[in-house]
């Protein structure tokens, strides 16, 4: 199972949670079908799974460069990819914060209609609560 998640870099809060899909579905196809558009002026850091997806007018998209077939990646492109990866690690930490609820990352054996969506919503809500408490205590 997989979901599209949009999170803020500064507050590490989950801003958007897409519906739960099969793990076989491609990230770009899911994003295209959900039709999420990011407002003008926002910056998006995403991986190569979304290559070719249109995120909305005016949004600045940062995505790593893909290595050309049979050729090495230039030093400038490697530095660009490292800079993006150092920012995207925050989002990977958000993903791991969601997966603290083991029922999200383990095999889900409940077949009740839309129960997997509810479990994911609860896991994201708990992540946002932990984040809010952590920020409040600093």
Automatic annotation (TrEMBL):
Keywords: Metal-binding
Domain of life: Bacteria
Segments for region (Disordered): 55-79
Cofactors: a divalent metal cation
InterPro entries tied to this protein: HARBI1_dom (IPR027806)
DDE Tnp4 domain residues: 11-128
Originating species: Thiothrix litoralis
Protein name: DDE Tnp4 domain-containing protein
């Amino acid at each position: 199972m997989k979901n599209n998640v949009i999170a803020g870099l500064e507050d590490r809060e989950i801003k958007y949670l897409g519906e739960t899909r099969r793990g076989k579905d491609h990230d770009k196809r899911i994003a295209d079908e959900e039709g999420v558009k990011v407002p003008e002026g926002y910056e998006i850091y995403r991986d190569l799974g979304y290559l070719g997806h249109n995120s909305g007018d005016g949004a600045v998209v940062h995505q790593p460069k893909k290595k050309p077939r049979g050729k090495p990646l230039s030093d400038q492109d490697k530095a660009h990819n490292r800079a993006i990866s150092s920012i995207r690690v925050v989002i990977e930490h958000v993903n791991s914060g969601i997966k603290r609820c083991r029922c999200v990352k383990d095999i889900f054996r409940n077949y009740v209609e839309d129960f997997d969506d509810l479990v994911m919503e609860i896991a994201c809500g708990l992540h946002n609560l932990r984040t809010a408490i952590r920020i409040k205590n600093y």
